[in-house]
């Protein structure tokens, strides 16, 4: 992999670019919070060659939403479940919109 390939991956929402310490700092939370949402299986950080947790921008957005709910008084397990359901709903709506676009462009079936 060249240096250009590495820099290009930083634009990838799923690229695990952030260490646990940096992720916690960016979210203004603790590393313990990140471990807790990992234990609740909200996010599963990738591991570096040395075994350190690494987070993607997508995972940080998910963690930020969970933190928002916890800050509002929602228990962490419930916050994680809410975020999972919100994510599933968003994906289902995206698939439904694609289906509708595909069904609309093919026109009515011939009689």
Automatic annotation (TrEMBL):
- Domain of life the protein comes from: Bacteria
User: Which SMART domains is this protein grouped with?
Assistant: HTH_MERR
Q: Which residues form the signal peptide?
A: none
**Pfam families associated with the record:** MerR_1
| Example of a GO MF term | DNA binding
InterPro entries, A to Z: DNA-bd_dom_put_sf (IPR009061), MerR-type_HTH_dom (IPR000551)
Q: What is this protein called?
A: DNA-binding transcriptional MerR regulator
């Amino acid at each position: 992999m060249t240096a250009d390939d590495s820099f290009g991956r930083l634009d990838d929402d799923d690229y695990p670019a952030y260490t646990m310490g940096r992720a916690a700092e960016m979210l203004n939370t603790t590393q313990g919070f990140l471990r807790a949402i990992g234990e609740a299986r909200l996010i599963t950080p990738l591991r570096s060659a040395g075994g350190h947790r690494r987070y993607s921008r997508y995972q940080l957005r998910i963690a930020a939403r969970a933190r928002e709910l916890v800050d509002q008084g929602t228990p962490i397990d419930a916050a994680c479940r809410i975020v999972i359901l919100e994510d599933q709903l968003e994906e289902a709506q995206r698939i439904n919109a694609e289906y509708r676009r595909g069904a609309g462009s093919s026109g009515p079936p011939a009689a």
